[in-house]
Amino acid sequence: MAVTEPAPVELPPAHEGILRRQALRESAARTYARSLPIVPVRARGMTIEGADGRRYLDCLSGAGTLALGHNHPVVLEAVRKVIDSGAPLHVLDLATPVKDAFTTELFSTLPREFADNARIQFCGPAGTDAVEAAFKLVRAATGRSELLAFTGAYHGMTAGALAASGGATDVRVTRLPFPHRYRCPFGTGGERGADIAAGWTEYLLDDPKSGVPEPAAMILEPVQGEGGVNPAPDSWMRRMREITRERSIALIADEVQTGVGRTGTFWAVEHSGIVPDVMVLSKAIGGSLPLAVIVYRSELDLWQPGAHAGTFRGNQLAMAAGAATLAYVRENRLAERAGTLGARMLAALQALSADHPSIGDVRGRGLMIGIELVDPEAGPPTVTAENGSAPPPDPALATAVQQECLRRGLIVELGGRHGAVVRLLPPLTLTDEQATAVVDRLADALRAAERSPYRRAAAGPTR
Ligand code: PMP
Which of 162, 257, 291, 423 is the best mutation target for the ligand 1 pocket, counting ligand atoms within 8 Å of the beta carbon and taking the most? Predict the structure, then answer.
């Protein structure tokens, strides 16, 4: 699909002032704004135009939100239609035709076996709120309160979600090893590492002296996003489904980042064919506006009215934009496109690693791609990986690459345990030419960063 380049804008002299005022007035906790000093004024498709007149290819896509890129015509049309119709923009969780259409469209995209017997709860408009809702649901349904989550997971920033992501709260979460191809905690990587990880999970759950209380649920990401783009092997996903089913533990699939075609199937659980008990959905389902829901097996629907309330649950414009996005991805088979194009980009980046010892690993699924940067001279390998050894991560190089990318008009995100993984989350609508431009600019940025005197400077803060 051709993406029209936006027309040049008048250069507002305010650009520097806006950035300066932001630095002075906004919180020390701000994140993206620190490493991406851009003032976006226009955007279309994959292109963002800054107030300084510069154009960028956006591989961050609102942290994986913009399945169709910026301001896609079908999204704009859907939003305008609601506004022009005189429909209310905010009615709490009351039924509306817009909501009805969104739910119908969403259910039509979900695995049939799941959707045929599912309920939906509209949550506050952030992924983390939907994660909290999922935890409340499974606790009410099972009468248990403990949770299982995985090393390297990211589920959000509210208390329960933060605890499941490894943050400090008083929520009780047992952290289990996530199979990691490259930095495998068991030193094997691959299927073998995934096997050991699954065995450890089983052992902990069945050992009466393991100290792990009977949990209400296990939450997992089919591909860890913020944790550094770590795809879970399909066989491991199936093992987790068996382990949880056999022990009446609810399986929560957090598809906040992996959903809506991103990984090459509409929902990432489809790769392994598993049917979870709960799915947590946000980001792309709102078509670039804030929206978050959980969809779950109706037998779990045992919580009380108001068990997870909130003022903004089911924003009308987001539901309209979301329904249009879901339909467009489905009708235009963008999941397949993400799979094909993603595989091509992955291969091109893997080829690049032959000339760059600083590329430790290139991995991903569909258009969720990560390049882990390492410093082979920094010391002995930390762990043995599937393909040999994994030298220590190099977050300073990753930061330098991000900055060099920005200079070349490419926005990329960093992630991973040490902030050393360059992440690509382009819109599913990117063209072949744009995909080539992304790889070329990234390769050029890497070459520049490797030569950069800032290479060993302290890496900036990551989320
Ligand atoms: N789950 C996953 C898998 C995520 O990637 C994120 C956000 N990056 C969240 C939950 C939390 O979503 P939000 O930032 O909207 O609260």
Answer: 257
Asked if residue 338 has its Cβ within 6 Å of ligand 1, the reply is no
pLDDT in tens, 268-280: 999 999 999 999 9
User: Which of ligand 1's atoms lies nearest the C-alpha of 128?
Assistant: 16
Would you state the pLDDT for residue 462? 39
For ligand 1, the distance from its centroid to the CA atom of residue 155, given in whole angstroms, is 5
The answer, yes or no, to whether any atom of ligand 1 lies below 6 A from the CB of 226, is yes
The verdict on the CB of residue 152 being under 6 Å from ligand 1 is no
Ligand 1 centroid from CA 344, angstroms: 27
Domains of the chain (ranges, CATH numbers): 14-64+334-451 (3.90.1150.10), 74-331 (3.40.640.10)
Q: For 445-463, what is each residue's pLDDT tens digit?
A: 999 999 987 665 544 443 4
State mean pLDDT over 222-247: 98
Closest ligand 1 atom, residue 290 Cα? 15
> Looking up tokens 């969403």, which residue turns up?
106
Phi, psi dihedrals of residue 269, rounded to the nearest 5° = -65, -20
Instruction: State phi, psi for 422 to the nearest 5 degrees.
Output: -80, 125
Q: What is the pLDDT of residues 316-345, one digit of tens each?
A: 999 999 999 999 999 999 999 999 999 999
Phi, psi of 47 (to 5 degrees): -105, 130
Q: What pLDDT does residue 388 have?
A: 65
Pocket test for ligand 1, best of 31, 32, 60, 128 (most atoms within 8 A of CB): 128
Q: Is 179 left (phi over 0), alpha (psi -120 to 50) or beta?
A: beta
pLDDT per position as a tens digit, 90-122: 999 999 999 999 999 999 999 999 999 999 999
Residue 224 Cβ < 6 Å to ligand 1? no
Average pLDDT, rounded, for the chain = 93
Cβ of residue 111 lying under 6 Å from some atom of ligand 1: no
Q: Is the CB of 254 under 6 A from ligand 1?
A: yes
**CA–CA distance, 202 with 225 (Å, rounded to integer):** 25
DSSP 148-173: EEETT----SSHHHHHHTT---SS-E
- The distance from CA 20 to its chain's CA centroid, rounded to whole angstroms, is 30
The answer on pLDDT for 292 being more than 60 is yes
- How many angstroms is it from 257 CA to the middle of ligand 1? 7
Q: Does ligand 1 have an atom closer than 6 angstroms to the CB of 156?
A: yes
380 CA distance to ligand 1 middle (Å): 34
Cα(368)–Cα(123) distance, integer angstroms: 25
Q: Which of 25, 66, 19, 63 is nearest to 41 (CA)?
A: 19
Is the pTM for the entire model greater than 0.90?
yes
